[in-house]
Amino acid sequence: MKNFFEMTMPSDGRNEAFARSAVAAFSVICSPTVEEINDLKTAVSEAVTNAIVHAYPNETGLVKLRCEADDETRTVTVTVEDFGKGIEDLDKALEPFFSTCANEERSGMGFTIIQTFTDNMSVTSRPDEGTTVTMQKVFRSC
What we know:
The protein is an alpha+beta fold.
């Protein structure tokens, strides 16, 4: 059976922890291990933080979070969507260590971290329309 939830929140840094915790709590139906749930929480944190920091510089916008769990395949799919400035060069943005915030303490590793801690990641973006990050995590442990 598939189950899901959606929520929309302001692009406020205080909401990153809430998004991470909501996905973790919801994912329990797929019986993850502590390590697996921590991997997913890390990936969600990166995606939501990217939306907050990069999509709406110097302003507040909306971040939409959708989480779908398939307890038969033990797979959780998380989508983080913003409606901000988008990414000009997506191929470049997906490279490790690339950051548009050169003057800030940003590592440019957000997408790389998401790829490392999930089983599948895709990113779509359109300048001035926003970015969508979709990630999947399969919980393998019994």
